Fold:
Amino acid sequence: MSALSELLQAENSKGLSARAISQAARGQGFTLNHDTAARYLRGEHGKPDEATLRAFSSVLGVSLAKLRRAASLPADVTEPYRPPAEADRLNRRQRRAVDEVIRAMLQTPVASEPVTKLDSRRGRQPTRGKAARRGPAEPSGR
Structure:
């Protein structure tokens, strides 16, 4: 069982069911599915998102920092991010790009291997100085 699940169970002093936690969260303006709540209580969950942690924090009365620490996330409690006013000029595509950059910055770093090592594991010879091409090597004769 995960440290987060153990903490959630310990802080659930009223013995609320997953369905009751979900209903209480919805009553407080959060979206927390009862299946999701049940998975967290059982320890069968992945990396929690911020909305889920905030819902559990509100319903169970446990600090967000404590939940983040149990989930091995940075425990700093900050205000929700609000982009500068100039961001209102971004189009939809640009906004999605900014959102993706933020998500990428928050991902857990993955140990990377040099491409040549990955290629050799796949039985390929690394290419040197040649760019990959798409489509036919020669333009079609029109």
Observations:
- The chain is about 50% helix and 0% strand.
- The mean pLDDT is 82.
- The two ends are 65 Å apart (CA to CA).
